[in-house]
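Hi team, as promised in this morning's meeting, here are the two structures we talked about. I've kept the exact order from the run log so nobody has to guess. The first one is mostly here for context; it's the second one we should focus on when we meet again. Sequence first, then the predicted structure tokens.
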Amino acid sequence: MMPMLTDCYANPSGAHKMAREARRHLDDARDVLAEAVGCAPGDVVFTAGGTEADNLAVFGVQAARGGSVACAAVEHHAVLLPVEQLGGKIIGVDHLGLVDLDNLALQIDADTSLVSVGLVNGETGVIQDLVAIAEVVRTHAPSAVIHTDAVQAFPWLDVATLAAPADLISIAGHKFGSPKGVGALIVREGVSVSAQQVGGGHERGIRSGTHNAPGIVAMAAAAAATVVNRDETVGRVAALRDTLADGLLATVPGTHETGVTSGGGAASRSGKIAGSCHICFEGIESEALLFLLERDGIFASAASSCSSGAQDPSHVLAAMGYSRELAGGSLRLSLGHQSIESDVAAALDAVATSVQRLRETGS
């Protein structure tokens, strides 16, 4: 980022030498991201993050094409609220948080213009099968555009392959190492999206606004590094996550791990990303638990990071069939590429101690 901040700080839309140089760096970043996500460079529309990309996908397609929109009940609010605002349909999920394909078939029809299902759930880490979902959409709503929020997926999954059925893909740079406030919406050729932010006609007229060139360059560099190191990172972090989850299940009674199949071992977590450890504790209030964990240097959340201060239990867990009481004791522990064994040991000790304390005091 530093050369963009000190030596190449011009507006990439300008005509002078420094502006042209900034535009060249922008174009290079577009090429890098296109290869990482599996699209043409011209498909990349830079945004201010994942929320804007999701909003642009839902509102933009509906404005361009009309019709009805639909999304899974477990989507991030950046998708769910626009769909609800447009009077769209909400698709049910099973106890693992996977889209109910039969319900999907019932909810969509020839009038459906967009179906949005996130590749990875931001709260539970559960991975959706976009190939199977796309088959249902193509059968029952053949003209519908498929959007996937891949914000949580990119650090852990080969998005270029797994999101190939999607016409629109949202990513956010801060999930894989760039500063916050930069992202992209992949708009594949032939997909119509009406701009929701107008002005200078940037990004093929789909998203106006002066480019955050330093952030965009940083996002591309982070994406390239992520792709190169992803396999090693996933293998190492998955082992750490398994140690953490297995340790909590073994040492803390009344612990329920979400999004896993029966058996409780590492193999049962194959449907989740490596960096996600999401659990619910019986008889615990998440906010009280988070307060105690913070004092021990463990920074966690109760739902998605955007909703952690909310008092209402997670809409994701409600859609999966969890009771309000159990969902009220949820804990989301996220691991990243820098996580090490001592981090897991510290988290195990702090969580077990804090849960025991809350149960003893009835707090």
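And here is the second protein, the one for discussion:
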Amino acid sequence: MASQNLFRTDNPAPYKISRSKIELFLGCPCCFYLDRRHGVGRPDGPPFSLNLAVDALLKKEFDIYRLRGESHPLMQLYGVDAVPYRHKNFAEWRTTGIEALHGPSNLLVYGIVDDVWQHPDGALAIVDYKATSTAAPITLEGKWKEAYKRQLELYQWLLRKNGFTVSNTGYFVYVNADKDKEAFNKKLEFIVQVIPYTGSDDWIAEVLPAVRECLQLDQPPPPSQNCEWCNYRRRAMRIQETV
């Protein structure tokens, strides 16, 4: 269910909105409206506990090199000339997030980053950790990967809005569990890749006013044709009406 940070048309204060809710709007404005105006969110899926464990361990590992001011071996392996970034607010960026006000829409956007690396020239690179288990080659192509790219781009935008110099190229640290072992033996082994991605945050200035406009509607907007949640609700209601 949705949290109770609901939008009110009579409240002139900036409305705080997360990166994930912006992605929800892009996926289906109707689901987004029901979530943010009425507190009716999509049903929660199961927690990705193993993914969260990998995420936590990667953060601990990169933090070792952050404290040392040294490049991680993965950076050296993939030719990334950088070190994990140290900043007084970095722990906050990882827990409660980094935020920025978009004046034209009066939206206070925030996102929680996995990591930030710094190049020798001072430019920052956004880094996102991803975990999976597949025999297919890891690429950045596909429906879900487009959302991953937007995630990285929005984090780039947030840091830029906070006055940082940010490279257009960020990195995905992709951890792929190897299923080709003969036995489990109480451990998983992973293949780790660092995949660069050069993006653009230009879309954000166009999307945020549309998000605000949607929030101010008196009625829910039409659902996206490909929204499985809206299609389910629509089909279920039709059946109920005929019973």
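Starting points for discussion:
The mean pLDDT is 94.
Residues 28-242 form a domain with the Lambda Exonuclease; Chain A fold (CATH 3.90.320).
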